[in-house]
Amino acid sequence: MRVVALDFETANNSSASACSLGVAIYDNGELVDNFEWYIKPHHRYNFFTNTYINGIRKEDVENENEFVFFYDELQEILKDSMIVAHNAMFDIGVLNSVCDVYGLDHFKNPFIDTVSISRRVYPELINHKLDTVCNYLNIDLSHHNGKSDANGCLMILLKAMELYDCFEVEDFIEKLKIHVKNND
Question: Which pTM was predicted?
Answer without folding.
Answer: 0.96
